[in-house]
TrEMBL record:
The active site is at C127. This is Methylated-DNA--protein-cysteine methyltransferase. Its EC number is 2.1.1.63. Involved in the cellular defense against the biological effects of O6-methylguanine (O6-MeG) and O4-methylthymine (O4-MeT) in DNA. Repairs the methylated nucleobase in DNA by stoichiometrically transferring the methyl group to a cysteine residue in the enzyme. This is a suicide reaction: the enzyme is irreversibly inactivated. Transmembrane segments: none annotated. Its main location: cytoplasm. Keywords: Cytoplasm, DNA damage, DNA repair, Methyltransferase, Transferase. Residues 76-155 form the Methylated-DNA-[protein]-cysteine S-methyltransferase DNA binding domain. It is found in: Cytoplasm. It is an enzyme of class 2 (transferase). This enzyme catalyzes only one turnover and therefore is not strictly catalytic. According to one definition, an enzyme is a biocatalyst that acts repeatedly and over many reaction cycles. It comes from Vibrio hippocampi.
Length: 159
């Protein structure tokens, strides 16, 4: 069973989804990867409550590392990329090439980019920290402006 709730953030409404195992998604209003079926609305679910608290602290500049159970579904390769994303520290950014190198597959830059774009748990699994090799912004399923604001919140320089 899936459960969800919403919260207001400085970047608009955020939808948070979980199962009893862990988080399955965090999306901004215009996220291209948000599913049409979210499950049962539940503001009291423990994982959703913790996620809201931690996201509020993150947006307030009081949290740099999340501690939430994760349960996103994806291919083995996607899972590998998403795990590598969780290892990018707050305030750090990587290029797609650097991320491919980190997973030990330097020739998989495009596949890494595709997996990054399918990450359903934005912010907590920080796909926004992956930028172009020249430091420029690249695509973000939640919109480039949202990505720019998340990077700014973390004091990451962008071009």
């Amino acid at each position: 069973m899936k459960y969800y709730t919403t919260m207001e953030s400085p970047l608009g409404t955020v939808t948070i989804q979980t199962t009893d195992i862990g988080l399955t998604g965090i999306w901004f209003e215009n996220h291209t990867t948000m599913p049409s079926e979210l499950g049962e609305h539940n503001q009291q679910h423990e994982v959703l409550r913790l996620a809201k608290q931690q996201l509020q602290a993150y947006f307030a500049g009081q949290l740099t590392q999340f501690d939430l159970p994760l349960a996103a579904t994806g291919t083995a390769f996607q899972q590998q990329v998403w795990q590598a994303l969780t290892e990018i520290e707050f305030g750090e950014s990587l290029s797609y090439q650097q991320l491919a190198n980190r997973i030990g597959n330097p020739k998989a830059v495009r596949a890494v980019g595709a997996a990054n774009g399918k990450n359903p748990i934005s912010i907590v699994v920080p796909c926004h920290r992956v930028i172009g090799a020249n430091g420029s912004l690249t695509g973000y399923a939640g919109g480039i402006e949202v990505k720019k604001q998340l990077l700014k919140l973390e004091n990451i320089d962008i071009k």
